[in-house]
Amino acid sequence: MPSTSWQTRFGRFAATIARLAGNPIVFAMAVGSVLIWAACGPYFGYSQGWQLIINTGTTICTFLMVFVIQNSQNRDGLAVQIKLDEIIRAVRGAENKLIDLEDLSQEELEALRVEFARMGEEARNNETRSAGRKRPARKSGGRTTRPES
């Protein structure tokens, strides 16, 4: 299928560009380019053409990098979701309904968030209650005290 081949090639290209763009050497080259451009300002009399060079270059780079970075983020996010799904599936006692959450509607996600917030609150309350029961009172200088946490 030609679209898969195109997607695969673009994915590899985007991953390479994203990896290179995050390299300190590439950053140094970008800073060097800006410094050279700034140093040429007096020679070109700070003309509109001189300004247009940096404006056009940065606009084009920014425009193209948006797509490259989005592609990388999509792939990274998908990989993380697949790994989390596998962990949920493999852990005994985990709720398998949490697999593929990214495909749920906003309302369904909010309902799960509320459910887990309630469960978290219950767990904290149970922990507080059980912690209070576990610590025995001790005598200290004639008065009863609780051990410090």
List the helices and strands and how they pair.
Blueprint: H1 2-21, H2 24-39, H3 48-90, H4 106-134, E1 138-140, E2 143-145
Antiparallel strand pairs: 1-2
Summary?
With 149 residues, the protein is mostly helical. The protein has helices at residues 2-21, 24-39, 48-90, 106-134; strands at residues 138-140, 143-145.
Which sequence of SSEs, written as H and E, runs from N to C?
Answer: HHHHEE
Overall mean pLDDT: 85
Shape call:
elongated
Helix content: over 70%
Main sheet record: 2 strands, antiparallel
Observed structural traits:
4 helices; 2 strands; disordered C terminus; single chain; 149 residues; two-stranded antiparallel sheet; elongated; mainly alpha
